Amino acid sequence: MAKYGLHTDWALALAVEIDRRDVGFCGEFLRASDERRQVIAAYLACRKLRRSQSEGEFLSTSDHRSILAAAFGDVPVGMRGALSRSGPMIHDQQFYRLLYDLLAKPIHAEMTRCIARIPELNLMRLDIVRHLPEWICRANVVLSIDTAEECRDVKTGFNLLVSRGVDPGALAAAIRKVRTHRELTNLWKRWVLKARLPRHPVPPSAEYRPIETGHELQNLARNYRNCARRYLPSLFDEEGGDAFAEITHGGHSAVIHLRRDGGDWQLEGIHGHRNRRPREGLRERISQYLEVHGVRLQPRARKGLTDWATLERLMSRHRFGFE
Question: pLDDT by residue (tens digit) across 106-135?
């Protein structure tokens, strides 16, 4: 059964156990309102002590707060409201325990406010709430994230972009505004362009211009109508090993693609407009300049990406559609 699917077997087994002692309870449990069914399920998932009173009678006649108090000892603010927004079907036992923990011992103040504003709760959404940092823990952000894994990617992506000079306050404010998964995906496509690339391995000159930001790479790809933009995550990655530059000489220009091989850099390619082969004189000029600065002219096989592949997942594409 899926990790975040519906799990009724455990609750039905306990209800049947109670029904053996208090005949009729199981039917009442299944016919109860959605909220009451969730309250009883929370009790069954988290009960601490057997009551001296008949359990079936207690669960059939007591109010919701009394049932929850018997399960947890104390009822955190927002617990009843959260259960009323947990749908008609019983969840995995972990759902009720996690809901209680997040409301009784919130990691930060936004956590309880966020849970209170989510229209329908399930285990996946609680898991996302648990992992979201305070500055983006909002109901609309939770509803824009499809999986707990993507939630972890959001945190990693945020830290990666901030490490490359992106304003953390501005990025957090932008994330807090998203309303759909598509908006969140498009946000990463925009904000990755604001990030600063690692230091280029070859110094600039009057003819040689290193590409230093995502925006510069976007403009380069547009001007030359080539696919340089698809290397964006690797360019940000210190260990991934791609770098681009533009060279202009004798009235002609070209894109230079460098790639890291261990501790060295090598020439991966030289491309004119629409990936055409540059003029021979320009190629010779490039080769001379790169050799002076320790770049090998024969490319080798590319190595895999590291954590910057997170941004590829967040943008949901292996290539970047900036057009």
Answer: 999 999 999 999 999 999 999 999 999 999
The answer to the question of residue 138 being in a domain is yes
Please tell me the total count of domains within the chain.
Answer: 3
Residues in CB range of 138: below 8 A, 6 or more apart: 110, 114, 117, 176
Cα–Cα distance, 92 to 42 (Å, whole number): 10
Most confidently predicted of 175-179, 247-251, 306-310, 312-316: 175-179
| 5 and 121 co-located in one domain | yes
Q: What is the pTM of this model?
A: 0.77
Token pair 């230091």 in the structure block, residue? 199
DSSP annotation of 7: -
Tell me whether residue 250 is in a domain: yes
226 and 295 in one domain?
A: yes
Angle at 151 between CA 150 and CA 152, to 5 degrees: 90
DSSP one-letter string for 23-70: TTHHHHHHHS-HHHHHHHHHHHHH--S--SS-HHHHHHHS-HHHHHHH
Contact 59, 43 (CB under 8 A): yes
Angle at 17 between CA 46 and CA 88, to 5 degrees: 60
Q: What is the DSSP letter of 88?
A: S
Say if residue 300 is in the same domain as residue 259. Answer: yes
DSSP state of 110: H
Tell me the pLDDT band of 321, cut-offs 50, 70 and 90: very low
Question: Is residue 186 domain-shared with residue 255, that is, in the same domain?
Answer: no
Residue 201 is assigned to a structural domain of this protein = no
Per the listing, tokens 């000159």 go with 205
DSSP 318: S
For 56, the domain range is 1-131
Whether residues 271 and 224 share a domain: the answer is yes
Same domain, 191 and 148: yes
